[in-house]
Amino acid sequence: MPELSIAIVGGGATGKSSITIRHIENKFNTEQFYDPTIEDSYMKEEIVDGETFFVDILDTAGQEEFYSLRDVYMRQRDGFILVYDVTNRKSLDEIRIFVEQVKRAKNTETIPFVLVGNKCDLTSERQVSNTQGKNLAESLQIKHFFETSAKTGQNINECFEEIIRETNSMLRKKSIEKKKSSTTSVKKQRKCCIM
Prior knowledge:
The chain is α/β, with parallel strands linked by helices. It has a single domain (about 5-190), classed as P-loop containing nucleotide triphosphate hydrolases (Rossmann fold). Helices cover about 40% and strands about 25% of the residues. The chain has helices at about 15-25, 70-75, 90-105, 130-140, 155-190, and strands at about 5-10, 40-50, 50-60, 80-85, 115-120, 145. The chain has a 6-stranded mixed sheet with strand order 2-3-1-4-5-6, with helices on both faces. Strand 2 (about 40-50) and strand 3 (about 50-60) form a beta hairpin. It is globular, with a radius of gyration of 19 Å. The relative contact order is 0.18.
């Protein structure tokens, strides 16, 4: 069974933990108390397109005081769900910073990302339009964008399915490239000289 590691990344209070809990346990915490996450990890067996995956989901800290932890988990993860809060314009602007940090930590441009605008059920408090979210995804060359609600469950499972597809596809490509390069190096080693 393929193993994938996913991180939920975004600013503080964007709903990363709520999204994770909604997906893992199909629950929403209705308490108004906000307890910032330092880091929580969950294991879940997922079936996407008829294939079973063992997925390690990391719910990360969005607060500045945990900035130093970011490079470590970013290097270790295969795919990333980027979360902003549609009721907080600043959280949308922070997404670019997270993308740059991930690219720098992983030292590559080829990273599976899904962009998520959370709290879309709070229509009267909205500061970021659906179009602005789509435009950001486009400008960052992120193929998949969802507006979600951890409260109602809207698009929660869909965004996880998409990051699993993207991540699995990328890991397969890397595996094929690795096999090709090792085959090429074996062929180069087999040269012989006849005297």
